[in-house]
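Colleagues,

For the teaching module next term, I've prepared a clean inverse folding example: a structure given as tokens, and then the sequence designed for it. I'd like students to try predicting residues themselves before seeing the answer, so please don't circulate the second half yet.
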């Protein structure tokens, strides 16, 4: 019988501050690899719901920044009003 620790193939490494598992959190996909620590460290865990909420909040902040910039360009005034009306119709 082959020992799993010697049969494992190293496909990558993560330095301090690195992350892994984002795809599994985003798409409810199974893990693509097993992660093994080669030295002492700290592991932070986040559940799928919280991860997606953090991404949503970050995305909304960027959208708000872009809308502020677009709102300062007169050429886009009519387009922004139209988008706002469409948003109101579909969201409420």
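(Answer key — instructors only)
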């Amino acid at each position: 019988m082959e020992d799993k620790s010697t049969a494992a193939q190293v496909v990558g490494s993560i330095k301090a501050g690195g992350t892994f598992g984002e795809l599994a959190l985003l798409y409810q996909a199974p893990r693509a690899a097993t992660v093994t620590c080669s030295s002492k460290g700290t592991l932070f865990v986040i559940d799928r719901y919280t991860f997606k909420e953090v991404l949503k909040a970050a995305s909304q902040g960027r959208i708000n920044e872009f809308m502020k910039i677009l709102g300062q360009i007169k050429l886009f005034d009519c387009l922004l009003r139209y988008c706002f009306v469409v948003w109101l119709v579909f969201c409420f």
